[in-house]
Amino acid sequence: MLFITDYSNEAWQTKWEDDLVPGFEDGNDDGTTVNVRYSGFSGNQESELGRLVQAGDPPELNTSTFEQVGDFFAEGYFADVGDVVAEAEELNGELIGTPYSIQREDETDTFYELPHGAYVGTFLYRTDVYDQLGLDVPSNFQEVMENARTIDESSMDVRGYGLAGQRTGKAHDEFQTYLSLMGANELGFVNPDADNLAEAEVELLYEENEDTIVRLLEFMGDLAEYSYDPTSLGWGSSIQNWVSGSFAQQYHLNAWPVSAAAGAGVDAIVDNTGVAILPLWEEGGISREETQLTNPTMDGHHLFDSADMTEGGRDFLSYCYGQDETRGRNMYATEPGRFLPAFSDIVDSEEFASYEQFQEYPQTLEQMRTVANDIYPNSYGLNDTPGVLANSPIGVYYFRSFHQAEMVNDVVTGSSTPQEAYEYGKGEAERLMEEAREAFDR
């Protein structure tokens, strides 16, 4: 069976090849073998997966966020993995977030993703730079901008911010997150109180949020003046450049760049990185309860129903997450700052605290527990507005697009004004909604 994954750094490769794969292969009776193929992050992985599917040879398993594979879901490629989710919950606690699922009439859930972990948005900053320049952790976007300007205009050899401006991946996520912090969304339910949100009507909110979207693009264009080259920054490069000390502030996920620095043994970055809750839009503006962050992005594994060895893929997922408590809890030891474990009992477990990286750098354990116990509950789901991505196939299909990243790129490169970028994004959004409604017969 073929398993495509972006859990692919050196430590992950060792874990797959020297531990999980041989352990599974030695223990199964049907001779199933696992071929692990390592892919890039969001923006690169999708093209390889698309080639395989178009050739009629899909992998048994793929690892990504669900929106990255929204088009394959729309075409009915995925198998239900609810049985493995139930096994994992029995061992290591209930899910902390909401992967895409459909409620059946018998009140059980059909899960099309086995969640590995949650991506919680965080604000990262260099504590040594802040201390030297007398800066405070920002509580709003304007303070982020002012800090970036102060850092950039200082004599320190570090840029003020790391704004993602590539046309895929991180810029797409950063835009959506900041828009939610401004109290706006791209999509919404016409009736958010509908009994079955999976079938409920979804509306595009671009026009009513035009001023907010344009203001956000203006902010990003201004912030780019104090940023490390935005067009060079995506997920992977934002981590690499944080580890090398290229800039002093950025939006990221959990404590992922800190974990990468610890893995590389760059103590100066590990010891001088702060992880904080994301700032609000403006002082005196909307409260946390009025923001629109509904659910952290879940990342996990998808089982292809049309693959040659679908049940072998299911068995491998069960082996990794659902059969042994300790094995399930140790699935996060290789990049312990990248994911907030999807199952609620893991973060406070002895196994989690005993990871080698946490033992060597105990502050990283403290950061991840701060993410779990403070940042996450004070950032997401603070109002009753249901998220379209977690509840509707329309959202899954729509958010697989990178038009948001293209808007940001056009602004930071000067190719478009914020208003022109908005008009382009609105056109793409309307096209995607038409496609989604056709795909799901709405």
Automatic annotation (TrEMBL):
InterPro entries the record matches: Bact_solute-bd_prot1
Source superkingdom: Archaea
Annotated protein name in UniProt: Extracellular solute-binding protein
Taxonomic source organism: Halosegnis longus
